[in-house]
Write a structure and sequence with these properties.
The chain has about 240 residues and is α/β, with parallel strands linked by helices. Strands 3, 4, 5, 6, 7, 8, 9 and 10 form an eight-stranded mixed β-sheet that branches. It has a two-stranded antiparallel sheet with strand order 1-2. A hairpin with a 2-residue loop joins strand 1 and strand 2. Helix 1 packs parallel to helix 2. Bound molecules: S-adenosylmethionine.
């Protein structure tokens, strides 16, 4: 989806199930971008509130994209004005847009960076100015890890974050499911082909963390605020929150 010249939004939307689907699996055939984006934002909001309830006041949002409404700092600072947030994205356009929106908020920073380089990111001056790595923080990776193939050692990167952050810190992820067609790999505008993963694979990314209940679940089922309708529902994405022991 192109919003303006040079500004691309990477979507996990899809038009049809893939041959990878189990015959009786719930599927995501009717998925659309706006709905998917809302679902991930809603999960992120619930996860921010969960982390605040655990006493966390500092956040890193990896692959933050172009901020819309209900961003991590909006939710966190609404409840806890002292909360600090560092956004990270590898897209220079997202960084420019974000910086313009955060002007004047001294507890928010926007960093151009690649989540696959944890040591470099965590050594970044702005990150160090905003965050105290000796205290628990929450790292969000919402709707982004499915753009990183295993061959880029995503597991190693997440393990490096885990080892660098204080006990009691949290990792928050949402991830495209195996039922989502990798249509973006066929889209000439996509610079990040989609890498869907199963619940087991998503759980594997969180090795060494303790999964917070209810574990890796369809995204709507992660601590919903109101009952989630029962029956077959599209499993487009999984979500999980995990605690560093
Ligand atoms: C689908 S958007 C998700 C944006 C936001 N997290 C949300 O839920 O609305 C994915 C974002 O991840 C960014 N991204 C992709 N690969 C990345 C990487 N290796 N490091 C940092 N950001 C990355 C893209 O530039 C894009 O802005």
């Amino acid at each position: 989806m192109e919003l303006a010249k040079g500004v691309t939004v990477h979507s996990i939307s899809t038009a049809a199930p893939t041959p990878r689907m189990a015959p009786d699996a719930p599927f995501a055939a009717d998925m659309d971008y706006a709905d998917a984006a809302r679902t991930h934002r809603d999960f992120a909001r619930r996860a921010v509130q969960y982390c605040l309830n655990q006493g966390i006041r500092q956040f890193v949002d990896l692959g933050s994209g172009i901020p819309t409404v209900g961003t991590v700092h909006e939710v966190a600072q609404y409840h806890q004005p002292e909360a600090r947030v560092v956004y990270v994205d590898s897209d220079p356009a997202a960084v420019v847009h974000s910086k313009a929106m955060f002007t004047g908020n001294e507890r928010v920073a926007m960093v151009l960076g690649d989540l696959r380089e944890p040591e470099r990111l965590l050594a970044n001056t702005e990150v160090r100015q905003q965050l105290d790595l000796g205290k628990p923080l929450a790292i969000f990776a919402v709707a982004v890890l499915h753009f990183i193939p295993d061959s880029d050692d995503l597991g190693g990167a997440l393990a490096a974050y885990r080892d660098a952050i204080a006990p009691g810190s949290h990792m928050v992820i949402s991830h495209g499911s195996e039922y989502v067609a990798p249509m973006w790999s066929d889209d000439a505008r996509s610079i990040h082909p989609l890498v869907p993963r199963t619940t087991q694979q998503v759980a594997g990314l969180l090795a060494g963390f303790d999964l917070v209940e209810p574990g890796v679940v369809p995204i709507q089922q992660w601590r919903p605020e109101s009952p989630v309708p029962t029956g077959p529902a599209p499993v487009r994405s999984y979500a999980a929150v995990a605690r560093r022991p």
